[in-house]
Amino acid sequence: MTLLYIVLATLVTACGNAGNTTAADNSGDTTATTATAAKAAFDGNAALEMARQQCAFGPRVPGTPQHAQCADWLKNTLEASCDTVIVQQAQVKTGQGNMIGIKNIIGTINPEASQRLLLLAHWDTRPWADNDLDPANHSKPVMGANDGASGVAVLLQLARQLKDQGTTLGIDIVLVDAEDMGINDIEESWGLGTQYWTKHPHVQGYKPLFGILLDMVGASDATFTREYYSLQYAGGFVDLVWKNAAGSHFINANGGAVTDDHVFVNQAGIPCIDIIDMRSDSETGFCSVWHTVNDTIDGIDPATLAEVGQTLLNVIASIQN
To answer: Residue 257 is inside which H or E element, if any?
Structure first.
């Protein structure tokens, strides 16, 4: 993903879950109240282990053996928790003009339910650590413990817990490929797997209530602000999620505009928000390990994973109520 700096009005209180943000709302009626306790607390340590297992394969760059091995593991892991799992394979063109093979891995819970929630995270990792301070590392792949594995880990653990505690809501977990092959300033070079999925959804005429994208959700000092495109396309659903937020990493303030998978989902007509770690005090707009060789499992905090996972459980509980 890449971040575009857009000047936004400063909002109220910079921490906590309370408060409303005025934004363009194309999401329809959202009547959920404040955070609703889920049946069981989200297990951040189990999610951390899911992130660790992804990193054990090495960088998950499309076209590599590590990528293929991790794809099999992700499919098997989802099959243990979901009612159906499909692997969507395709050839897509990168910003460099190369054709690569990708795999979107999609797990469905309660496939017959008409009321559905879309949950996404990208599982690939960037082939080049082009933001590393050492130019010698710019041609090395990124491990992607935070940028990739953290969001996937939360969704894998969420599926496990929903299997145990049950839900009446239909859940579609879409692990998208080739998000991180992009070239800065070329929007369509990012989110290649998501762009393919929006044109070839796993269910014809697929229309969930809305979608939530997780990206870089594992750092101990993460800050989740209200991302610009999320507000423009799905402001009411941003409010819904922030009302159900489970901790202080969710900041009640507007953030920048991020070219990420949710942009293409929104362009396809499905309202989708992005929970992503953005930093107002960073030159890149992201955490210091973003697109560097230092994005390793040592930087992942189970408490942050637990907060994000609990927020998702709270949102699901609020929709069911």
So the answer is: strand 257-259
